[in-house]
Amino acid sequence: MPPEPSGTREGALRARLAATGLDGLLVTHLPNVRYLTGFTGTAGVALVLADEAVLVTDFRYAAQAPAEVGERARVEIAELDVWERVNRLLEGRARTPVIGFEEESVTVRTARRLEALSPAVELRPTSGLVEALRMRKEPAEVAAIREAARLAGEAFGAALPAIRAGVTERDIAARLETELRRRGSEWHPFPTIVASGPRSALPHARTAARTVEAGDFVLVDFGAQVDGYCADLTRTVVAGRADERQRVVYDLVREAQGRALAGLRAGLSGREADALARGVITARGFGDAFGHSLGHGLGLEVHEAPRLTRANGDELPEDAVVTVEPGVYFPGWGGVRLEDDVRLTPHGAEMLSDGCTELVELV
Description:
- Helices cover 33% and strands 23% of the residues.
- The protein has 10 helices and 16 strands.
- It is elongated and about 75 Å long.
- The mean pLDDT is 95.
């Protein structure tokens, strides 16, 4: 993905810092570090100040970091300790700077490192400053998610022949993950879920050694990653012919997802978005079987803001990318979930995934 114009994201962050009385922010959550600087390594701290942005990392990334970061930040390679270099950057300021840190990503070890920083620094916990910027996706970010969703859909189509009676869930997952890699997925944003028969009633099942039986629902939740950006899809198929109960349940979930896709738009609250699908399922008497939220944001992480949930009264921003994934689950029998990815506009939801949710019977 081409980098955004130098300083655009940092400039937006600086405006938020100024509004909250902060002179800078220590960014330790690696997806946020990547968002601000372009750095993809596994060890690094970004320090965003009013007059500069600095990425501090170690010798392993001495060549990689400058190439990825470019003009978005100055790169400092710590010889011995990253935090010692951060401390040196904060020392000698004309006045005591108020520096925020990301409270959600602070481990006990990081907290001790923060405590050891120069006494001339005032530290203040912050929450969601960078994540709030990440909710609104730029065109290049949307393009990366769209491409991830495209190849994910193609990979699933190629893996469908592996879903049949007598095959284990793990065999199906292996075939799908191979097809994802062949098509260019950088990695799997989360462990592929294949849950068959009664196990499809587990919303976040772990793929197991269970052998698929004739007539089983097979729920497959999978993702792809392009330029660091994630797609997240779920399809539920039948390994054989569907019976009447399966058809009724499947049609209910498909109707609920269709209602949500038709009514979803930027400006709705997360609660209102969730209600679009939940109202359909509740009206049929199955509200208790839909226990999770309608969806979540997608980006550099597979679960990020905003949330399409009954607990979220905040407005969904324009250009957010979210999942739409209603599901119903009946312990001991099975369940259905259908999930697609969309971009929110003031006028509706732009589909980024293939939306192929017709009931598939694999006979």
